[in-house]
Amino acid sequence: QLSGKWFLVGMASHCSYLAEHSHQLEATTVTMTVLDGQSLAISTFRKLDRMCWEIRQHYLPAQAPGRFLLKGHRKSSKVDVVVGEADPSSFIILYYQKGRSISVKLYGWSSRVSDAVVDKFEQRARAVGLSQDVTYYFPTYGFCDSADEFHVLDGEL
């Protein structure tokens, strides 16, 4: 259900970097591939200093369906990923939890989603204590489709 190319539409987070650099958000796409029926291979494409980068990550299956684990280099840097809500024909809402910090991301099959989907996303964010002032929306133009071999980051957080 999650396989395919998704556009990052919005994100709610208390991340200070995001708050300080929200005026520099870049159009971001994610290609998800389900491996071995359980884990996810994630390729994120975005611009950094006007160059297209690909960031590759591997989400391991966790205890229950719709739950994944993104391992970091240290034990303390693991991230729990949970599918909050999904309509595979139009959107996915994912929760990312690292320690006590939580973020919510909205992905769409296209860079624009319906107002009803945006409302669902904002309700989900508010439900975990993330208000409108820490909710950011990404540009709907300027996407990267690929990155050359010198602009690939492989691995974990």
Automatic annotation (TrEMBL):
Care to name a GO molecular-function term for this sequence? complement binding
**What SUPFAM superfamilies does the entry give?**
Lipocalins
One GO BP annotation is: complement activation
What sequence ranges are listed for the domain Lipocalin/cytosolic fatty-acid binding?
3-137
Q: Which domain of life is it from?
A: Eukaryota
Q: Which InterPro entries match?
A: C8G, Calycin, Lipocln_cytosolic_FA-bd_dom
Indicate the secretion signal residues.
none
Q: Name one GO cellular component term.
A: blood microparticle
Query: TM segments?
Result: none
User: Which Pfam families does the entry link to?
Assistant: Lipocalin (PF00061)
What's the protein here called? CO8G protein
What gene is it encoded by?
C8g
